């Protein structure tokens, strides 16, 4: 098993409880999922998220905006045979994809597309607080937090053109 497959297996093992229960139907997560996938490069406007910032992020600057690529499932893919399809009336699980320092979401396009084909909404941050050589993990976590909060706000905003509007739960239950 290569590293990519192992990472996907671990990720899906952790996320499987978020999927609706399927009664004794066999399917393989390594296969393409039942949904068509769309993606979009966008950004969180500067200052869009400024309230309730956790103390751990206090004092960290955000220069400009936070860029991201988001993948989401569309209608069922007619070329994929699977017994697993989430009803269109339910919210999709949100999976924040955090990649490494020396990369960007485009390098993980296949993995993020694969996750979205199984019904997940997958945003990935283009880290941009500092140049790559100076960026700290806490700064990356801050940008991911900003993106997460922005997407939840967009999911709840009436008439928002963001693809997450109506697709993810704007008020997820806290464990």
Overview of the molecule:
By secondary structure, this protein is an alpha+beta fold. The chain contains 3 helices and 3 strands. It has helices spanning 3-15, 109-117, 137-156; strands at 35-44, 66-76, 122-126. It has a 3-stranded antiparallel sheet. 26% of the residues are buried. The model is unreliable at 8-12 and 20-25 (pLDDT under 50).
Short description:
By secondary structure, this protein is of the alpha+beta class. It has helices at residues 3-15, 109-117, 137-156, and strands at 35-44, 66-76, 122-126.
Largest sheet: 3 strands, antiparallel
Query: Would you tell me the overall average pLDDT?
Result: 77
Poorly predicted tracts of residues: 8-12, 20-25
Helix content: 10-25%
| Strand order in the largest sheet | 1-2-3
Q: In DSSP terms, counting alpha (H) and pi (I) runs of 4 or more, how many helices?
A: 3
In sequence order, what are the helices and strands, one letter per element?
A: HEEHEH
Strand content: 5-15%
What's the count of strands?
3
- Which structural class is indicated by helix and strand composition? alpha+beta
* Apparent shape: globular
Radius of gyration: 17 Å
Distance between the ends: 33 Å
């Amino acid at each position: 098993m290569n590293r990519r497959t192992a990472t996907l297996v671990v990720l899906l093992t952790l996320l499987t409880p978020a999927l609706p229960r399927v009664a004794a139907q066999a399917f393989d997560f390594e296969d393409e999922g039942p949904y068509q996938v769309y993606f979009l490069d966008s950004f969180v406007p500067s200052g869009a998220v400024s309230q309730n910032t956790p103390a751990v992020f206090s004092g960290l600057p955000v220069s400009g905006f936070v860029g991201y690529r988001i993948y989401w499932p569309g209608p069922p893919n007619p070329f994929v045979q699977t017994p697993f399809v989430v009803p269109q009336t339910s919210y999709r699980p949100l999976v924040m994809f955090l990649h490494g320092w020396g990369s960007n979401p485009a390098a993980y396009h296949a993995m993020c597309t694969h996750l979205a084909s199984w019904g997940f909404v997958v945003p990935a941050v283009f880290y941009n607080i500092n140049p790559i050589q100076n960026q700290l993990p806490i700064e990356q976590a801050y940008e991911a937090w900003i993106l997460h909060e922005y997407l939840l706000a967009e999911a709840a905003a009436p008439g928002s053109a963001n693809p997450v509007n109506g697709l993810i739960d704007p008020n997820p239950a806290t464990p």
